[in-house]
């Protein structure tokens, strides 16, 4: 898709249009600069063939409103969106630091600690979106970009939904919406999606960062999609024996075929990863990596405290999967932040046992109820003892003693009345 600078300039008259930054199946991205604000931006244009579809344009407008409402340091901010004359544009923050893919490919390798730290930053951004009922649907290193400050940010939220719609993950030409190497089984099957869908993509991305290979053999097309649904991923420790057992166990749980067997949100996945890192490398390992992870106490707290002692890592309250799946972009923007409890299988307080399985501490409300029951029992016992003592001391005084007179016929005579 070539860049029509004259067209972009007419649609965005306040901007100077710059060079092309990248292109892909979702469109082309060019740089720009707002003249009055002197702010550099990235402008993403959907392919013209897609923008010509009225249904795509409606979804684009609806989804863009929700994306523009996201305000999180690990999510690229959307400054503006335009849908006019068959053109669909998103104006976003310009992230000049390159993609996570380019950082890994251009460096001399990446340590397990740094790979996890970067994944935690991604989990923080995805978790913020999940709390708003927004799914990414295409988690991969190419969609993770660095700001000039070094902060990693998640980009391209909801693009797959814009193109494919809410009810299907297939285009009219039969292409799966999503990158085959990272796509979740439920996306392949076209069944209900949930935050666990993004967890699968994030776990696949981390597996690749740690091992240098994908969880499945390097098949392509339909064969790879079949493996996501019916295959068994290669255990991470088999291809990356340097990865600690607790970390490997968390990653493999994120790759479970059934969504209910994964972590329910990216934030709970991140908290479990952070806790596993603490079990493997000790408290403070995340600070040593100097990877900014912002606005996510459950994740950062789990990396600094031993298992079970993290006061900040309260379990996140999220939308039930069924409620999330039924949300439209408009209703998601108006919906309350929390509408339900964490589903079964959530990691409470981000705790992971030595084997990588989540621990199950007793919820605080149950502990309070048990304390109340114990206090009631003690109060009842004390009351019974007091009543018994009163009965022993007081009841004899409450009755009149009688005594039979000597030599009488047995008629009682009141003592002291003679």
Give a brief rundown of this model.
With 418 residues, the chain is α+β, with helices and mostly antiparallel strands.
The first-level CATH class name of the largest domain: Mainly Alpha
CATH architecture assignment name of the largest domain:
Orthogonal Bundle
Beta percentage is: 5-15%
Count of individual domains: 3
Describe this structure as you would to a colleague.
This protein is of the alpha+beta class. The protein folds into 3 domains: 1-93, Phosphorylase Kinase, domain 1; 95-361, Transferase(Phosphotransferase) domain 1 (Transferase(Phosphotransferase), domain 1), CATH 1.10.510; 365-414. The protein has helices at 5-11, 48-51, 54-69, 100-106, 112-131, 159-164, 185-189, 195-211, 221-230, 236-239, 245-254, 266-281, 285-289, 297-304, 321-326, 329-334, 364-398; strands at residues 15-24, 27-34, 39-45, 78-84, 87-93, 144-146, 152-154, 402-404, 412-414. The chain has a 5-stranded antiparallel beta sheet with strand order 1-2-3-5-4, sandwiched between helices. Mean pLDDT is 76; it is low at 166-176, 309-365 and 399-418.
Per-chain topology:
Blueprint: H1 5-11, E1 15-24, E2 27-34, E3 39-45, H2 48-51, H3 54-69, E4 78-84, E5 87-93, H4 100-106, H5 112-131, E6 144-146, E7 152-154, H6 159-164, H7 185-189, H8 195-211, H9 221-230, H10 236-239, H11 245-254, H12 266-281, H13 285-289, H14 297-304, H15 321-326, H16 329-334, H17 364-398, E8 402-404, E9 412-414
Antiparallel strand pairs: 1-2, 2-3, 3-5, 4-5, 6-7, 8-9
